[in-house]
UniProtKB/TrEMBL annotation:
Gene3D superfamilies: 3.40.50.1860
Keywords: Isomerase
Keyword Nucleotide-binding belongs to the record: no
Keyword Isomerase applies: yes
Name of the protein this chain belongs to: Glutamate racemase
GO molecular function per UniProt: glutamate racemase activity
Organism taxonomic ancestry: Bacteria, Bacillati, Actinomycetota, Actinomycetes, Kitasatosporales
PROSITE patterns in the cross-refs: ASP_GLU_RACEMASE_1 (PS00923)
Alphabetical GO biological process terms: peptidoglycan biosynthetic process
InterPro entries on file: Asp/Glu/hydantoin_racemase, Asp/Glu_race, Asp/Glu_racemase_AS_1
Length: 270
């Protein structure tokens, strides 16, 4: 199977690595927009057009599923992408994990970009899935940019500022931007005792379900779904990287994160 992922930058690494862990044989196409990032401050129409261009570039390589690995793009572009590609190509969006967090904890903080914090979209999710929990919306200015640049000092400053706005003793922190999942360890250290809720694992699992596959090497429950490599064993999945539609190596900044290192260990198709 071949799964494409779309984001403005390296936020897609978390979901891509989750797919790789669940299905070592999955071929991955990472399609991002370094010339247009970040998407958060852009108008919805602009985000939609840029996400559509990234999706078309990925789909040109023959995908079986497409993951919109970006909260902002999922808000603005998901209807357009589904109209463009479904039903032939399943499109899976990213939604903050408010529902499971609020189901398990009575006090929840949602860390998100300033543009998302307090937005109609996020407030609607809280209203629908908040389950009566005490929910605090925490803006994280500069955190996504710092993660994108792998700037450890800027990450530490942004995480510290967000932690200062997070109620003491909060039970859970929902990561409302895919970039944040790449620094989950630093967020955990800044909010001790809080459970972190990201979206990457759920999004990856949903993509595999849409394909009738699971994470143990079967398809539709039939053993042997994972392709065999010559000489035996499992054929490792390949990795293609598209930067504004152009084939590229995995950006060096991605290697600063364990998710990027995991993906870099897989072969390219060329």
């Amino acid at each position: 199977m071949k799964i494409g992922l779309v984001d403005s930058g390296i936020g897609l690494l978390a979901a891509a690595a989750a797919v790789r862990r669940m299905r070592v044989d999955a071929d991955l196409v990472l399609s991002s927009d370094p010339e247009g990032l970040p998407w958060g401050p852009r108008a919805g129409e602009d985000v939609t057009e840029r996400a559509l261009q990234c999706a078309k570039a990925a789909a040109s390589l023959g995908l079986d599923a497409l993951i919109v690995a970006c909260n902002t793009a999922s808000v603005h572009a998901l209807p357009t992408l589904r109209a463009a590609f479904e039903p032939g190509l399943p499109v899976i969006g990213t939604v903050p994990a408010i529902k499971p967090a609020a189901a398990a904890h009575r006090s929840v903080a949602i860390w998100a970009t300033p543009a998302t914090t307090g937005s109609v979209y996020q407030r609607a999710l809280i209203e629908e899935f908040g389950n009566g929990a005490e929910i605090t919306e925490v803006p994280c200015p500069g955190l996504a940019d710092a993660v994108q640049a792998a700037d450890a000092e800027a990450v530490a400053a942004a995480v510290g500022a967000a932690a200062a706005l997070t109620p003491a003793g909060v039970g859970a922190v929902v990561l409302g931007c895919t970039h944040y999942e790449l620094v989950g360890d630093r967020i955990s250290a800044a909010v001790p005792g809080a459970a972190l809720y990201g979206s990457a694992d759920a999004v990856a699992a949903q993509a595999l379900r849409r394909l009738g596959a699971d994470g143990d090497g079967t398809i539709d429950g039939v053993a042997g779904g994972t392709p065999a490599a010559p000489g035996g064993g499992t054929r490792p999945g390949t990795l293609d990287v598209l930067l504004n539609g152009r084939p590229s190596a995995l950006p060096e900044v991605a290697l600063a994160y364990r998710e990027g290192a995991l993906l870099a260990a897989t072969p390219a198709t060329a």
